[in-house]
Write a structure and sequence with these properties.
Number of helices: 10
CATH superfamily of the largest domain: Zn peptidases
Strand content: 25-35%
CATH topology of the largest domain: Aminopeptidase
CATH architecture of the largest domain: 3-Layer(aba) Sandwich
Mean pLDDT: 96
Low-confidence stretches: none
Oligomer: single chain
Bound molecules: zinc ion
Order of helices and strands: HHEEEEEEEEHEHEEEHEHHEEEHEHEEEH
Strand order of the largest sheet: 1-2-3-13-4-14-18-16-17
Number of domains: 2
């Protein structure tokens, strides 16, 4: 697909979105702020909610966010069109008592979060970002900007590395440096506190992750490529936000964007796709439309969940890792993900629906299926389908370097996904 000027603008905006979203908490807040700026009302789960018909709303729960647009003439059985994605990305999370170090170096104690490509995190300027729970009950976001680095051992001290590969010890060789000094006289949490304008002594709890600090970049012949951290799955979250914010005509169904946390860990949390967040919000939307239990079931039976997460483009150096026939290519359109063992929720009915949404958006799509000897990952689709019984299609964009600190996408695909999402909401 050609890279259009509007696709370049979309990718530049995605670079802003990713830069503003070093942690899932930041991502959820960025989604809410962007939607509030175009007229969405932020609701609190602890409050009574206004009448739903004709409203545009957003709710943040920890590192997850759900936003929705209700048509003015919505009835108790009006179906929902749910675009799903996830806010978290693999990497590292700060441990308790994180200020460590030795030999004159200050280091950060971190745990591995999800399944990052460990080597890709070496020799990058990294940020520390997340949320701080304070003694006065407030919860604030914190982001240090570039502060840490995982320096690779020099080749002179590791002569076999280019022949034997590099295997990092997950404990001893993943603790980043963040300064010089005596760890007993320093406090890494003080850096986080200062970035949020609060006192370190007031921190009662923290959820902080390490994130690549480099901005996303467009490059390659004809500007085909977009490289950035956290494309998995902020590229989908961003596409959903753009589609929901830009809905030009009133949707026929209830248009819902659901971005969950903790997908990289299996989604089992109060803000993950296996938790009750989406179910809770849908119950309140339908209650706000006067639906009884049967009417809500009727609405959900007619609803769709378009579950969007990144997938694998064929890699020119490793094409044998793909199915010999089905080989989606970065830049050639979004992908429909198919798996016989229901690692993806797509079925015949979903494939047909996806083809229709792509057709109305004027977008060509591709298919992904694994090589039988190289099992694929999974995503939120089968989890929400199992939990809610809503028809689900797993889709996404083809990328390279999935779970690298800096992944590679196609500029054309990023915008195309947002266009299909908009067609899906309007369907
Ligand atoms: Zn993902």
């Amino acid at each position: 697909m050609p890279v259009t000027p509007v696709a370049l603008t979309h990718a530049e905006d995605l670079a802003d979105f990713v830069a503003a979203s070093p942690s899932s908490y930041h991502a959820a807040e960025e989604v809410a702020q962007r939607l509030e700026s175009v007229g969405f009302a932020r609701l609190d789960e602890g409050d009574a909610w206004p009448t739903q018909a004709g409203g545009r709303f957003v709710v943040v729960r920890d590192g997850a966010v759900i936003a929705w647009v209700v048509p003015k003439d919505a009835a108790p059985t009006t179906p929902s069109q749910i675009f799903g994605a996830h806010t978290d990305s693999p990497g590292f999370k700060l441990k308790p008592q994180p200020t460590t170090g030795s030999r004159g170096w200050l280091q950060a104690g971190v745990e591995v979060y999800g399944g990052p490509l460990l080597n890709s995190w070496l020799d990058r300027e990294l940020r520390l970002a997340g949320r701080l729970a304070l003694a006065d009950g407030r919860v604030v976001l914190a982001d240090t900007g570039p502060l840490l680095r995982l320096p690779q051992l020099a080749v002179h001290l590791d002569r076999g590395v280019n022949n034997n590969g590099l295997a990092l010890d997950k404990q001893n060789e993943t603790q980043p440096v963040w300064g010089l000094g005596d760890p007993s006289a320093e406090d890494l949490l003080g850096e986080l506190a200062a970035s949020a304008g609060v006192n370190a002594a007031d921190i009662r709890g923290f959820d902080a992750v390490v994130a690549d600090s480099a901005r996303g970049a467009i490059f390659g012949k004809d500007n085909a490529f977009f490289a950035s951290g956290r494309l998995d799955d902020l590229a989908s979250v961003h596409a959903g936000v753009m589609a929901l914010a830009g809905l030009s005509s009133a949707p026929r169904g209830i248009a819902v964007l659901a971005a969950f946390d903790h997908e990289e860990l299996g989604s089992e949390s109060r803000s993950g796709a296996a938790g009750p967040f989406l179910e809770d919000i849908l119950a309140r939307i339908y209650a706000g439309l006067g639906a009884d239990a049967t009417e809500q079931r009727r609405a959900l039976t007619a609803s769709w969940h378009l579950s969007s997460d990144v997938g694998h483009s064929v890699h020119p150096n490793y094409a044998q890792k793909h199915d010999p026939v089905v080989q989606p290519l970065l830049g050639s359109g979004p992908i429909l993900k198919i798996n016989a063992n229901q690692r993806y929720a797509t079925d015949a009915i979903g494939a047909a629906a996806w083809a229709g949404w792509c057709e109305s958006a004027g977008i060509a799509s591709q298919e992904f299926v694994s090589n039988n000897a190289v099992p694929c990952g999974s995503t939120i689709g089968p989890i929400t389908a199992t939990r809610l019984g809503i028809r689900t299609v797993d889709v996404g964009i083809p990328i390279l370097s999935m779970h690298s600190a800096r992944e590679l996408a196609g500029v054309a695909d990023l915008h195309a996904l947002a266009q299909v999402a908009e067609a899906f909401f309007a369907a």
